[in-house]
Amino acid sequence: MAIDFTFPPEVEEARQRVRAFMDEEVRPTEQRLSEARAGRAEWRAELDRLRQEAQQAGLWMPHMPPDWGGMGLGPTALAAVSAEAATTRFGPYVLNCYAPDEGNMHTLLHFGTPEQKERYLRPMCEGRLRSCFAMTEPEVAGSDPTLIQTRAELRGDQWILNGHKWFISGARGAGFAIVIARTEPDPPVPQAATSALIVDIPSPGFEIVRDVVTMAGSHNHCELRFTDVAVPAGNLLGERGGGHRLGQARLGPARLAHCMRWLGQIQTALDLLVARARTRYAHGSLLAEKQGIQWLVSESAIELYQAKLMVLHAAYLIEHGRDYRTAVSMTKHHVANTLWRVVDRALQVHGALGYSTDSPLAEMLQQARWSRLADGADEVHKWRVATEVIETFATQGSTAPALGDLPV
């Protein structure tokens, strides 16, 4: 049988080393700083120290090839270590495999020129430079990138960029932005209207308007304006008119990378739920002995089991060069909703403690809500899945090939 749900020894060894590093180094540091109510400078110093230790321990950039300083793990192995890293708050950042830089590294690796890689990718891999990806706009639906209004006009050896973006994660403190802008006035198809440009930060005419405050507070999701920003012609990333294709090539694996990290958060929430249920006594018995609580445990366990299998299979499809788009849409929808439900159940079992900031669950729930919007809202992914299933039946007489093309 070709089906095997174990990892090769080298991948399992990497997973265990990441788990140990999170348990022994990252989590205790986070707990100590939180309890001490440490300031931003102390957090920064400690995170920098952990990043250096991760690099020295060979746990740096699990998603990048060894010749760029990474661990060289494929998508399936990356799922294993990403889930472990995400059981802590800053684990992915400590390993230099966090959003949006992880996706931008892949984008530069596959679409960048040698000069672009040396100028932008190299310092990112060395932990010296951060980035952002600027596509979403407030005036048009973010789920339809063919509506993008930000424009770039080629004048001589420069692109002149004008437009408005928002919810651009990581913009404050970034050294550059990959900006998707409309460059083609009369494209043959709407998907060929935009291009990707690398914009240095700061640049004349580039403005961070504000950090958009969300229900979870301020988390560097910025509103940006571009006013006659001059971008060198050599900063075109990929082909002209290829912005949509580049964006989709980036966002497909990036969506799955989010899911990989969410698995770690779901597992943490379920562990907290069960730990609380086993120790909290009320009305004659432990919560864990009450059927209503047991249902919450079983539903969460079933959904997490499904989520893990879906992530692994979608990663397998990417790793083997097969069509992964529908599988990733299914996975993103399911894992995002599982994150939301399991964290909510864990908070419920904790009662008032879960609602307070004495527990991590309140912040986890606030953060979990964005998962159903980021990188495609629930409804968009469900629509994509439905159209693929219907089209597959129309052309092949069965829906089975649209369900991951599994041999069952």
UniProtKB/TrEMBL annotation:
The keyword Cell membrane does not apply. Residues 9-127 form the Acyl-CoA dehydrogenase/oxidase N-terminal domain. InterPro entries: Acyl-CoA_dehydrogenase, Acyl-CoA_Oxase/DH_mid-dom, Acyl-CoA_Oxase/DH_mid-dom_sf, AcylCo_DH-like_C, AcylCo_DH/oxidase_C, AcylCoA_DH/ox_N, AcylCoA_DH/ox_N_sf, AcylCoA_DH/oxidase_NM_dom_sf. SUPFAM superfamilies: Acyl-CoA dehydrogenase C-terminal domain-like, Acyl-CoA dehydrogenase NM domain-like. Keywords: FAD, Flavoprotein, Oxidoreductase. It holds the Pfam family Acyl-CoA_dh_M. One of its GO terms (molecular function) is oxidoreductase activity. Its cofactor is FAD. Residues 242-388 form the Acyl-CoA dehydrogenase/oxidase C-terminal domain. It is an enzyme of class 1 (oxidoreductase). Its EC number is 1.-.-.-. It comes from the Bacteria. Residues 132-229 form the Acyl-CoA oxidase/dehydrogenase middle domain. Belongs to the acyl-CoA dehydrogenase family. PANTHER family: ACYL-COA DEHYDROGENASE FAMILY MEMBER 11, MEDIUM-CHAIN SPECIFIC ACYL-COA DEHYDROGENASE, MITOCHONDRIAL-RELATED. Homodimer. This is Acyl-CoA dehydrogenase family protein.
